[in-house]
Design a protein that fits this description.
55% helix
């Protein structure tokens, strides 16, 4: 298991969004934005900065889809109780 210190901020930003997209079966949104922005759908071929940019482009749509399908965003670790939700 990797410690968060093993990842850059760019990598964590993308991995968090990728995890949500995978969990809520909407990885196709990342593929769409990858194709639109980079003319291919091979997200794994992107650099860390390109993945960060991809995450910025796709984030809103992925969160909208995930929320519609049951995702409940939580408050950041230090800003609430263990089971508090934003919506």
């Amino acid at each position: 298991m990797n410690n968060n210190a093993d990842f850059t901020a760019e990598q964590l930003t993308f991995l968090q969004l990728f995890h949500i997209a995978a969990q809520y079966d909407c990885l196709y949104i990342l593929d769409f934005y990858c194709m639109n922005e980079f003319d291919h759908d091979k997200v794994t071929d992107l650099s860390d900065s390109e993945r960060r940019h991809l995450a910025e482009l796709a984030e809103r749509e992925i969160f909208e889809y995930a929320i519609e399908n049951g995702y409940r965003p939580t408050l950041p670790f230090n800003e609430g109780g263990e089971h508090e939700f934003l919506c």
